[in-house]
Amino acid sequence: MTIDLKTIKHIAKLSRISVTEEKAKKLEGDLKSIFDFIAKLNELKTDKIAPLTSIAETTLKLRQDEIKSKNIREQIVKNSPEKNEDYFVVPKVIE
Amino acid sequence: MSDITKQTLTDLVKNIKEKKLSSEEITKDFILRSEKSNKLNSYITNDFNNALLKAKKFDQKPNFNLKLPGIPIAVKDLFCTKDVKTTAGSKILNNFVPTYESTVTQNIWNEGGILLGKLNCDEFAMGSSNETSFFGNVQNPIDKNLVPGGSSGGSASAVCAQLTPITIGTDTGGSIRQPASFTGIVGLKPTYGSCSRYGIVAFASSLDQAGPMAQNVKDCALLQEIITSHDVKDSTSIDFKRALYSKELNKNIKGKKIGIPKEYRVDGMPKEIEELWEKGIEYVKDCGAEVINISLPHTSYALPTYYIVAPAEASSNLARYDGVKYGFRAKGENLIDMYEKTRSEGFGAEVQRRIMIGTYVLSSGYYDAYYLKAQKVRKLIKNDFDEAYKKVDAILTPSTPSSAFKIGEKKDDPVSMYLNDIFTVPVNLAGLPGISIPAGHDSKGYPLGLQIIGKAFDEQNILNIAYAMEDKINFKNNINDWWIK
Fold this sequence. Notes:
The complex is a heterodimer of chains A (95) and B (485). Chain A is mainly alpha-helical and 95 residues long. Chain A has helices spanning 5-14, 21-38, 73-77; strands at 83-84, 87-88.
C-alpha cells in the first residue's frame, strides 16, 4: 500500500486521465499525504462490525416498467460534442 | 437605490401579496444589484432577461396563493435547469444545456419562484473555498480577498450580498453549512432522502443533499418546506410525512435536551470558537432547554472515512464524463486517448485528485482495506449518533473550526483544506439534518456559526431551536458594499 510513481500511473490509467511525469510527481505527493491521513482508520478494530450499506435504511421499491418519456432521441444527443443525425460520433474503434 | 434587496424573503412575499411591490420591481432591483456586484463573481450564468419577462408575466396574472409569488431566486450551478446552461463549476460541462429540470428547482418554480441565474461553486462541489471552480474565485462580501467557503460559495456570497433573497445549495460534507458560517447566513442540510437528488449533478450519492441558504431561520424554513418532496425519480427519496416547517416554526424549546459532544473540542481550535460555543450553550439554557454532556467517540475518524467514501462514489459518478455524450471533448489519436485527454483537460486538479483516490480505494486488492473498512467505520459513526439520541433531542456544536480564511491560504495543502469540514462531515456520514446559524464575530469581525444537529427527519425541531437562538443572538452582518464603486 505504498504510493509511488508507478502506482500513480496505474491509477491514472484506470481513471482514464492522462498524466505527464511532472503531474504524476505532484499527485504522488498529494495522494501520499491524503493516504497518511486516511491511515488513521487502522487504529480501529472493525472485524465484527457490519458495514453500512444504505444510510436511508429503506429497501428499494419495485415499480412498473413503463415508458414515461417518448421521442427524446433529439434531447439525448443534443449536448453531444460530435453527432451525426441520431448518433454519437467517436474516434474510429475498429480498423 | 431602494431597500428592496435588503428585505427578507418573508417580507418580500408579504409585500407582494399586499400589492405594495410588484414582481417586476423586486426582480429589477435584484438584477441591478447583481450587475453592480460582478466583482464578487457570485454568478456563473445569469438569466436576467428571462427573469424580467417572467416577472412581468406574473404581474399580469398574479397568483397570490403561491408560497413564492413572483420571487426571483438564483440557484447553485449544480442544479440542472432546463434550457439554461449548467456547469457544476467545471470546464467539462462548460457548454452543457440541460433538457430537463431538477426536482428541487421545479418545486421552487411551481410555487411561483423565478430563476435569476446560476451561482458559482467549487468544481463538482469538491472544495471548501470555491477556489476549485473553473470560473474563478468568489469573493466573500464580508471582506476583500476572503473566501466565501465552499462548495456553495457563490450561493453564500449571493445571499450575504443581497443579490438574491434566498438560494439553494448542496451539502455533501458541509458545502451548505460551512459557507453559511463564513458569510453570516443560515444554511440547512436536510436529512438524507428529504430532498430529491434528481437533476443535481452527482458528486457522492450516499451523502449529497440539497438545502436552503437564507438570511434568517424563518426564510430557511419556508424554502425547506417547498423543496422537500418524495420523488419517484430518485430511488433514495424517502416517503415520510413532511411538516409545514414555516407554519409550525416556534421558539418554544422549553425542556428540550441539547447534547454537547466533548469530542468536538479539537486540538488547536481557536479560543474564539470555544467561547462562541459556550455562549451558544448559555443561549439554549436561557430558552429553557436542558444541556447534557454527551460523547460521540468516533468523531475523529469521520474525516478519514469521508475521504474514502466520497472520492469512491465520485470516481464512479464522474466516469460518465467521457467526451461522447455531452460536455467538453479533447482531440485524441484513438478512443482511449480521447477519453484520457478529455478528462485530463476537462477536470481541474482537485477533481482529478479525488477521482484517483476513489479509483485506488475501489481497485482490486484494496477494496477491503479502504472502502469496506470505511463503510464499517461509517456504521460506528452512525451508531454514536443513535446512542446520543437516546439521551438528547438535538446536538449543539460549532459549524467550523475557524472563521473564513484568505484566498490562496490553504489552496496547496489538500489535507488542511479538508479539516475545514471536521464538524460538518459526521452529519452527512450519518444522514442527519444539520443547520448552521450565524452566532457571533471573531476579533477580525468575521462571522462565526453554530451548528444544531437533529435526529433523522426532525428538521422542525432543529429549525425551532435555531429560531429561538436567533432571537437571543441578534446577529447583524457587517456589509459595507466594498465591491460596489
